[in-house]
């Protein structure tokens, strides 16, 4: 089991609204529920998970800057920023720790109607990307980080 790994769980815009967003894409759980569950899964794996969400690009960037040298890895759901926000990509590049890109909904399938959802400006930097698995995608992300960071 991985021991005492420090993992940041980062959410971008509108993800604080989970529970009130379209349930066919995002289920019924709140961000609080999600964070509690990921913390518990992390604990089972010997990981300490610190959580942060912001709707504000600058606040998000400054938070990521402050994590450099502090965390061993990250799980990032950048929300809509995924599809166009190059400053988020630059901040994640500077983080210098492996991160997993996670989307609750199936952005590939949704891309048939909304092509922008198939674009990710962070994907090539990510250890791996997971989408369409709801809450379980975050457990898969923890497992990918355990494998990477051992
Ligand atoms: C999302 C998918 C994005 O396209 C969307 O803008 C979000 C959430 C997801 O978790 O499925 O806000 O990242």
Could you explain the architecture of this structure?
By secondary structure, the chain is of the alpha/beta class. It has a single domain (5-149), classed as Dehydroquinase, class II (Rossmann fold). Helix content is 38%, strand content 19%. It contains six helices and five strands; from the N terminus they run βααβαβαβαβα. It has helices at 23-26, 31-44, 57-67, 86-95, 107-110, 136-149, and strands spanning 5-11, 47-53, 73-77, 99-103, 128-131. Strands 2-1-3-4-5 form a five-stranded parallel beta sheet, sandwiched between helices. Strand 3 (73-77), helix 4 and strand 4 (99-103) form a beta-alpha-beta unit. It binds 1,3,4-trihydroxy-5-OXO-cyclohexanecarboxylic acid (DQA). The site of 1,3,4-trihydroxy-5-OXO-cyclohexanecarboxylic acid (DQA) has 10 residues, from loops.
């Amino acid at each position: 089991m991985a021991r005492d790994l420090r993992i940041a769980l980062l959410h971008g815009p509108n993800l604080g609204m989970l529970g009130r967003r379209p349930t066919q894409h995002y289920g019924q759980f709140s961000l609080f529920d999600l964070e509690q569950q990921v913390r518990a899964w992390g604990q089972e794996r010997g990981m300490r998970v610190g959580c942060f969400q912001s709707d504000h690009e600058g606040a998000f960037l400054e938070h990521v800057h402050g994590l450099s040298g502090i965390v061993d890895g990250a799980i990032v759901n950048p929300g809509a920023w995924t599809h166009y926000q190059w400053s988020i990509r630059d901040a994640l590049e500077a983080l210098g720790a492996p991160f997993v890109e996670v989307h609750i909904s199936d952005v590939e399938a949704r891309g048939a109607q909304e092509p922008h959802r198939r674009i990710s400006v962070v994907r090539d930097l990510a250890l791996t990307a997971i989408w369409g698995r709801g809450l379980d995608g975050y457990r898969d992300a923890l497992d990918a980080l355990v494998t990477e960071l051992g």
